[in-house]
Amino acid sequence: MSGRSIADICRDNERLIIGASAFAAFLVLWEGFSRGWWATLFTPLLGEGARALAIKPIFISSPTGVAQQAWTMFAVTGEIWPHIAQSGGQLIVGLGAAILIGVPLGLAAGRYRTFSYILDPFLSALNATPQVAFLPLFVMWIGTGFWMRVLIIFLLAVIPITMNALAAVRTVDPRLLKVASSFGASELHTFRTIIAPSALPFILSGMRLAVGRSMIGIVVAELYGSATGIGIMINMAGSSFDTDKVFVGVLVIVIAGLLMSEALRAIERRYDGWRPAIGDNY
Amino acid sequence: MNPKLVARDVCLEYRQPRTGDRLLALDRISLSINEGEFVSIVGPSGCGKTTFLSVVDGLLPATSGEIIVDGLSVNKPGPDRAVVFQDASLLPWRTVLKNVCYGLECIGVRASEAQERAMRFVQMVGLDGFENSYPYELSGGMQQRVNLARALVMDPKILLMDEPFAALDAQTREYMQEELLRIWEQANKTVLFITHQIDEAIFLSDRVIVFSARPGRVREHVTVDIERPRSLKLKRDPRFHALEDRIWSLIHDDALAQARS
Questions:
Q1: Which residue has the higher pLDDT, B261 or A131?
Q2: How many CA atoms lie within 13 A of A30 on its CB side?
Q3: Are the Cβ atoms of A176 and B105 closer than 8 angstroms?
Q4: Domains of chain A
Q5: What does pTM read for this prediction?
């Protein structure tokens, strides 16, 4: 550590320091609105108008309120766990199925032109429709249970996954494909050694999009006849003006999304380490 | 001597997707290459030399005519032919050693054996100590050495080389030409070498085949009657210049006609 001044340490951790300060400032600002700090502070300057800077906690809650509520729900009553289990289960099954079906489908459509002619119209039509519009149909077909919600999550997630996998194959360097066929590589071997490694970053970014969309799926699908789940919890808390609880639910979704994005990034680093742009950052 | 590779009346016609016209790319190409012979094809750009190489490799089906290797007609890629590609075309996510193994993997050689064999050729092309490097860490010349090793490790009957040094700077190119001769004398292969550089063709080859452009046709066979081993000094030899002049004038008319059109 010798020779490293405080200025050096600040520069090396610039990203962390600036990011954390901005977030802390945001929390203070929020707390201030909720507790009327800003209204009090600016009254000498703005007079009566400064009262607009105090916002009732019922509308915006407050960081401390949310933290307190979270503590209660996680540790004291434990009431949030069944919601997380329910939504998490739906997410895993829906998103998992979307990956297992979407990736091979997209790769095949990218590789075989005739197959893409079959798949393309369905994919384009599905992409152009707001998928949640299918909800009433699904309810008619399979009721309002677990599988209906899995289906809507699947539908939302499968589209970006398939489309990215398809586009990924088209970006494969044709010269490498020529190398493979010149050496008499089998189709499976070509997929494994040429197509998969070059398609991987695109497939992962498709999955990242899918994570966000399946979160929408959870919230929307649980509106229909669900008793447990993060989505319906948020909704019920909202309709009883329990704003703290709404924010706790949102926070759970945000954190789950971040964790999944991080997991995908870890996969990318694991298999994509050969890329000079990434390697140089270490 | 037995001909190793024979092309008999090879024609290739293709449909241009934009205009729908049918174009003749190769017009009755006939040639024969003996075992251990180093033959180059030169011609103006667009004369179909790379296309012809793809037909010989079996990547493109000939419209008519046939390619015969060791007396057997071939129409798809096989381990008897290996290509050294124009751009090194290495798999960027594989190390040098794993790149050299690629072809062996494709024909089902066990990984441990493939690596052992590949290592010998990594050494032969002078990349000892770089076997665990990634392609982006190598210079253009070194990448081409990997490309060459990847083809040689297959122990092909015929080595097909598609302008392998075209993208290198002048000094590296000359150095690689000398290196190629050294390796060729060690490996003792039949080579079909495509280039647009006349001096490169003469320096390397026993025989130079001159193509004319659009459609590609064999214009002339020029025998290079210069003893081996050769060194770069040869490029200042009067016999070398005489051959260069002769081939240049054969190509020149075509090139001129093309530049005008």
A1: A131
A2: 15
A3: no
A4: 6-55 (no CATH), 75-279 (1.10.3720.10)
A5: 0.83
